[in-house]
Design brief:
Blueprint lengths: L13 E4 L5 H11 L3 E6 L14 E3 L5 E5 H4 L5 E5 L5 H11 L4 E4 L13 H7 L4 E6 L14 H7 L24 H24 L4 E5 H7 L2 H10 L16 E6 L2 E6 L3 H11 L13 H6 L1 H12 L4 H11 L3 E3 L3 H6 L1 H5 L3 E6 L2 E7 L23 H9 L3 H4 L4 H4 L1
Parallel strand pairs: 1-2, 1-6, 2-5, 6-7, 7-8
Antiparallel strand pairs: 3-4, 9-10, 10-11, 12-13
Organism: Paraburkholderia franconis
GO molecular function: CoA-transferase activity
Keywords: Transferase
């Protein structure tokens, strides 16, 4: 192990996380995984909304539910929790003391929601000019929708993702679909992390922090990627085409004798290899399929031809043939199959951590692999208010007696 590997890339960075649910907590968990000291500020008695988003629940050693939801557990690893009532003057003063020691603050209150407590950026930058303050909302700090609440499902619809997700009109099961996970929240969390790190890099040069305004709707539109530019450049509104690709053919799912598989041909060489693997080498000489543009034009004919062949063998047989031929191909796994996959197992994507309410909790590992400062799993997702005393001691230099939760109000 490298001499520096016991120290995270963001070791020494202090983050106050006032966010709830997924987009903000996803960003703060990523910062925490990279070594930042993330303190999660939660409502006394309730905490993050997602603590109640079960079942399933984490079970204790006797198999009884602990009340900690799997949803909450997915986004709050490596953090420390303190319970502070922001609606009370004592709570506001305590948060401001913590802000004075913080590098970053993440929040996802409605626009203006924290100004009533004096915890908005304009107020806090006077207290700590170096503070990087990241606000995550549904629609941003400006514009006609700024005051609206935003939720992932709503934004997937408004932001265009559902218009290109789902079976085509006129086919069985037609209609728009959302993604199976809250992708808009996740991608917003990732953009937030990038923005925070960029603001910290600038602070190294300027000495001052800044306000980051992130909107779920902005992120969703940005993440339409080629579909958005297909429209902007081509002038044609993209349509739902199921699992097919709008710009590449063949690049979709195909039926097999015992299920389905994915074939993802990205160039003409791979298409020629596919034809050989399918036992149809003459297709490479068909003018309709001579290049990708032609294959897109004659999509329906080519897909029907491939389907007529793929149903003749089982998925495993086809995958072996395709891999030998150098054709990108794979199964459509459910979650039990994902975590049993030999590649997933070899990469240690499933981890286990000790938990104060259970013998352990199983979580998904951070996918970032760094040679000099690897991700470390220091804290399991915290119970509500678990770290009140130690955070006040570490951040505010209180002695053990003053940092006791029962004496905090006396100090304020």
């Amino acid at each position: 192990m490298n001499a520096t590997s016991n120290q995270g890339a963001l070791d020494g960075l202090r983050v106050l996380d006032l966010s709830r649910v997924l987009a903000g907590p996803w960003a703060s968990q990523l910062l925490a995984d990279l070594g930042a000291d993330v303190v999660k500020i939660e409502r006394p008695g309730a905490g993050d909304d997602t603590r109640a988003w079960g079942p399933p629940w984490l079970n204790d050693a006797d198999g009884e539910p602990t009340g900690e939801s799997a949803y909450y557990l997915c986004a709050n690893r490596n953090k420390r929790s303190v319970a502070i009532d922001l609606s009370q003057p004592d709570g506001q003063r305590l948060v401001k003391e913590l802000v004075s020691k913080a590098d970053v603050l993440i929040e996802n209150f409605k626009v203006g929601g924290l100004s009533q407590y004096g915890l908005d950026y304009a107020s806090l930058k006077e207290l700590n000019p170096r503070l990087v303050y990241c606000s995550i909302t549904g629609f941003g700090q400006t514009g006609p929708y700024a005051s609206r609440a935003g939720y992932d499902f709503l934004i997937q619809g408004m932001g265009g993702l559902m218009s290109v997700t789902g079976r085509a009109d006129g086919t069985e099961g037609e209609g728009p679909l959302k993604a199976g996970v809250a992708l808009t929240d996740i991608t917003t969390g990732l953009y937030a992390t990038v923005a925070i790190l960029a603001a910290l890099a600038r602070r190294e040069r300027s000495g001052v922090g800044q306000h980051i305004d992130l909107a779920l709707l902005d992120v969703q539109v940005a993440c339409l990627a080629n579909q958005a530019t297909n429209y902007l450049v081509g002038g044609v509104v993209p349509r739902r085409i199921g699992n097919a690709h709008p710009n590449i053919v063949p690049y979709q799912d195909f039926p097999t004798a015992d299920g389905h598989m994915i074939i993802a041909v990205g160039n003409d060489g791979q298409f020629a290899s596919l034809c050989m693997a399918l036992g149809e080498p003459e297709w490479t000489r068909d003018a309709r399929f001579a290049g990708n543009a032609q294959r897109v034009k004659y999509r329906d004919e080519l897909i029907a031809m491939i389907r007529s062949v793929t149903v003749s063998r089982a998925t495993g047989e086809w995958i072996a043939l395709m891999e030998a031929a150098g054709v990108p191909c794979g199964p459509i796994n459910d979650l039990s199959q994902v975590f049993e996959d030999p590649q997933v197992r070899s990469r240690n994507v499933r981890i286990e951590m000790q938990h104060p309410l259970a013998t352990h909790v199983a979580l998904v590992a951070n996918p970032i692999r760094m040679s000099e400062s690897p991700v470390q799993y220091r804290h399991s997702p915290p119970t509500l208010g678990q770290h009140m005393t130690e955070v006040l001691r570490d951040w505010l230099d209180m002695d053990a007696a003053d940092a006791d939760e029962s004496r905090v109000k006396e100090r304020l």
